[in-house]
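Support case: oxalic acid complex. Customer-provided input:
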Amino acid sequence: MTSKLSALNEWVDQVSAHCRASQVHWCDGSEAENQRLIDQMLETGDLLRLNEQTHPDCYLHRSDPKDVARVEHLTFVCTSNKEDAGPNNNWMDPAEAHALMNGLFAGCMEGRTLYVVPYCMGPIDSPLSRCGVELTDSPYVVANMRLMTRMGQPALARIEREGQFVKGLHSTGELDPERRYIMHFPEELSIQSFGSGYGGNALLGKKCHALRIASYQARSEGWLAEHMLIVGIENPAGEVRYVAAAFPSACGKTNLAMLIPPEAYREKGWKVWTVGDDICWLHPGEDGRLYAINPEAGFFGVAPGTGAKTNPNALAMLDREAIFTNVATTEDNQPWWEGLDERVPATDWRGRDFDPKNGPAAHPNSRFTVSIKRCPSYSDQAESPAGVPIDAIVFGGRRATLAPLVMEARDWQHGVLVGGAMASETTAAATGQVGVVRRDPMAMKPFCGYHFGDYWGHWLALGEKLTQPPKIFQVNWFRRDADGGFIWPGFGDNLRVLEWILARCRGEVEAAETPVGLLPADGGINLEGLTEVPDMETLLAFDQAGWREEIQAIEAFLAEFEPRVPQALKAELERVKSALH
Ligand code: OXD
Ligand code: MN
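Agent response - structure generated as follows:
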């Protein structure tokens, strides 16, 4: 009998020959292996050791200054039929893409080691998890994959049992932005990434596998791969309810996933449990509910803005065994970023003496990588092979105006429209202009591996299978006042909104009907203990004229995905439109 690993062995041999790798190393994920890689990177300067007293086993990586974010314009979905990738993706013919990538990879690993990185996305013994193997020439990628996924021997054993895995090939090449491509071949379950070492481009388990390839796979298998955090909210009675929430990159998913309840809530016994901060795989269960797993095993979080007030749980896990990328450092070699504290850094993210004239000390998209096990609020259900049952799905955007603090969709179908119409101001997580409003359906604009029209159809079809579907909500923490300041305090106080959401799920509180959704009735959001009462009237206002304009913009946006926009979604849009007029 041929081993189920023979396909893997053959592929490794073929890649190694084509890339002319000097050595091949199969990663077992062990502590000893990790230590050897770290030592080697300390020697080459790929990693710098941080202050060993304050931050034991913490390292700094300074990337190439032109390689600091995801590159959406260089990211392609290569389906045999162009239409299947949809207007939401860049498309290249698979044969053309393979020819291009074969050219780039030819001989690119001369003098380098090819690392074979077997990994499992999701709890190692969950039937909902999926495996992959990343071949990479970057030890930085290996060290990060070890924190971000279940990497090494147990994953290889599962691959040997199942025989199926996603094939990812990565090389940093020369880090030349002119020779950089992130290619996805969903029909082949494969990924090829060349020319970047940045997380979202190079840690192939994350965006490439767990979102773009998985979303495609999920469509044919009847589940969803989403850009969502998963959080458990424990009420004073000790009941834990789970919420999955989609927000675009760098809009506070990590903070929300591990928020610390406001004091008045803590005193009563409210607790928050973290299951995941970025990616969520949702499967219908036999009981007609939706179950979620976090396919990742670590955080690749945005550092700036992470501080004692915004995310004390994150700070607590970042003082050991973490990799920092493109942060600044203090005089005594501690990692530092804007929003951490009042200290003045000594060195900026590029290694220069800090000078405010050069811009922020830490790169706005600087990151930390750390195992989820280090999170003080890590949920004891996060490893559950069956996943956690989801009561509410939340879609959030960053909008200065119009979108209220919270709004409930009438039903699943309306919720799909609410998610599909989401818009948000862009952030530094991807290259390009920051702060412009763009439509980002379900926060999946950069990550859906197929046509958005088909994706919405899949959401609608999946909803029909659920006899107890989660309720769907939209939130916006980012409303601004006339002076440009945020109206809602955010962070821990977002629990006030989650409390309302969960009370709605249990049918315990009233809501006010508007043409665009249900808003909290007067006094519906608990403000107990807030020293400054925010302008709730503005936060929960329904602006009829503004929504009329918005609905026109949504209609025009949806039209871009014709002829594949589901009839039911258009009917839903018509319903909202006529209610508005
Ligand atoms: C991320 C992103 O890194 O969304 O999670 O860019
Ligand atoms: Mn993300």
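The mean pLDDT is 97.

Case will auto-close in a few days if no follow-up is received.
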